[in-house]
Design goal:
Layout (H helix, E strand, L loop, with lengths): L11 H15 L31 E11 L3 E9 L5 H14 L3 E12 L2 E3 L3 H13 L1 H9 L6 E10 L2 E9 L6 H19 L2 E4 L12 H6 L2 E10 L1 H6 L5 H19 L8 H12 L6 H4 L3 E7 L2 E11 L11 H8 L9 H24 L3 H8 L2
Parallel strand pairs: 1-3
Antiparallel strand pairs: 1-2, 3-6, 3-8, 4-6, 4-7, 5-6, 8-10, 9-10
Length: 382
């Protein structure tokens, strides 16, 4: 078997030869991994050294009624997971939200970021470069946009400390999640800044982006899409379908999501947002590592008259409907369940994901406030 990444063939024969070589070297038998429903050439931009596929059980939740700016109506949402009780719980939340007239969902910001770090001579030199950037933003924008047909540079913000200068580039990336697009465009713009100012780019990613790491920067300022969702659940639905009370749900949310998260100094003030995002991401070909940023949501509950008001803020929802894993057949089929395949669908998809997240938060808070979380996992997850 050829070592390293030299054997990059994507034909079925290449994959079979590589898998058999791996079996021979390791002594393992990859019977199920060998089963692939599509031509491996379709994954040439997604994986190296391909030997097969790993199957994850797929279910769905819904119908979920959403009243969004882009997603309007009832949706069935695919979720891929190995955690028993998760889909049942989210589905219960969908039922309660739909019975309440649907979730209100809207996107208030949509910017993908990349932040290179430059080495300067010191703070005054950094100030010189920042002044140059601010006075030549149109030239920088032109350089960045020569690399992409769809990406648009929105702004560049500067952050300096010592001899390190960080420039946080923000882009509209259309229907792509846009991380690769932003990286390539930022690199081109940064080379222009190097040529014109004489400073050196140390890394196209200086970690102020902030990519695939929890951070106050993204919690506050956002990355990808900032999405808000809320719903008011009538008292009879809370007590009948969710088997708890309004006051119990409000107290659980307060003491768990807000006080408990503050005690832990957590960037996520929620019940289990990462659970829903991970399952939807895997099903639809999103980058699962960006669940890290997506998990930094905030869930709040209040009494509204006799009813329960619930809201979710997702400050860093990084999703797309073109490029990446969305090209693959199974993932494309999952997106098609929501009519979210291809161009013009990313904002719709983001609103659906936020609605499903709201459903997951609602159901889990209800289960915990009613003391039923352990029971659900005993019955469905073991």
């Amino acid at each position: 078997m050829t070592g390293g990444l030299k054997n990059r063939g994507r034909t079925k024969e290449d994959v079979e030869e590589r898998r058999k070589g791996l079996e021979e070297v390791t002594g393992a038998f990859l019977e199920h991994i060998a089963h692939t429903s599509f031509d491996p050439i379709m994954a040439e931009k997604n994986v190296e050294n391909m030997v097969g596929c790993v199957q994850v059980p797929l279910g769905f939740v819904g119908p979920l009624l959403i009243n969004g700016d882009h997603a309007k109506g009832e949706f069935f949402v695919p979720m891929a997971t190995t955690e028993g009780a998760l889909i049942a719980s989210v589905n219960r939340g969908c039922s309660a939200i739909s019975a309440a007239g649907g979730a209100e969902v809207l996107i208030i910001k949509d910017e993908m970021t990349r932040a290179p770090v430059f080495r300067t001579k010191g703070v005054r030199d950094s100030k010189r470069v920042v002044d140059f950037v601010n006075s030549h933003i149109q030239e920088i924008k032109a350089e960045a946009e020569t690399t992409t047909r769809h990406g648009k540079l929105i702004k560049v913000r500067a952050f300096a400390t010592g001899r390190s200068l960080y420039l946080r580039f923000s882009y509209d990336t259309g229907d792509a999640m846009g991380m690769n697009m932003a990286t390539i465009a930022t690199e081109a713009a940064s080379r222009y800044i190097e040529r014109e100012t004489g400073i050196s780019m140390v890394s196209v990613s200086g970690n102020l982006c902030v990519d695939k790491k929890p951070s106050a920067m993204n919690f506050i300022d956002g990355r990808g899409k900032i999405v808000l969702a809320d719903v008011t659940i009538p008292k009879d639905v809370v007590e009948g379908r969710l088997r708890t009370t309004v006051d119990s749900a409000v107290e659980t949310c307060y003491r768990k999501n807000l006080v408990g998260s503050a005690m832990a100094m957590s960037f996520g003030h929620n019940a289990h947002i990462a659970n829903i995002l991970a399952a939807v991401f895997i099903a639809t070909g999103q980058d699962p590592a960006q669940v890290v940023e997506g998990s930094m949501g905030m869930t709040t509950c209040e009494r509204s008259g006799e009813d329960l008001y619930l809201s979710v803020r997702l400050p860093s929802l990084e999703v797309g409907t073109v490029g990446g894993g969305t090209r693959l057949p199974c993932q494309k089929e999952a997106l098609s369940l929501m009519d979210c395949v291809g161009a013009g669908k990313a904002k719709k998809f983001a609103e659906i994901v936020a609605g499903a997240t709201l459903a997951g938060e609602l159901s889990t808070l209800a289960a915990q406030s009613a003391g039923e979380l352990g029971k659900a996992h005993r019955e469905l997850g073991r």
